[in-house]
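User: I'm putting together notes for a lab meeting next week and I want to include a structural view of one of the chains we've been expressing. I don't have a solved structure, so I'd like a prediction I can at least talk through. The sequence is below, exactly as it appears in our construct file.
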Amino acid sequence: SLGESSRWYAASAPWNGSKAATWVEGLCADIPGASTALKWLARKLKYCDPNSPQQATPAYITMQVGYPGLSDLVDVAAKHVAGALCGTSGYGITSKYSVALEALSVAVGYGEDNDGMVAISSCLLPGKHYGGEPSEVFYKASINHADGTCQSGNGDFGIHSRQPATWYASMGRALAARPLRGDTSVLV
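Assistant: Thanks for the context. Below is the predicted structure for the 188-residue chain, given as structure tokens.
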């Protein structure tokens, strides 16, 4: 368990599950008509279980909307998460994942902003104010799910809504400024 002085940060978390997690099961089952980009994404992000290639990995199954116990996490997270990053663009920062995550976003048909894998309504925690500046503790950025891992760094041109690496650095600076008391941080 985390001590009282610990801080919990979340990045692109699907607190209410992900419609894409259900949809990718079909990619593993090799549904007809799946685009080359989506099949590439399924392999690259290891959606399919290597021991049972026609099925999604257990990790993706537990992210499906309605998975038992998943909805209980929202209350826990709303109470304990000290900061969070959520994405609103399937395409995000131009990278090798952009086309595939945008294709996944379109194929899943979220009907709302999403990061390609997680709908914004599933990522946002209730009672928290999310802003578009990377210095904000709860940051809503124009990035995709892969961008939340900083594999492509920050977006070009210094656009504040496309700066995930700056958000992580800002959270790190805030933690470093706190007095040391055996603090720990956890990122999910």
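A couple of points you could mention at the meeting. Strands lie at 7-11, 81-87, 138-141, 185-187. The two ends are 14 Å apart (CA to CA).

User: Perfect, that's what I needed.
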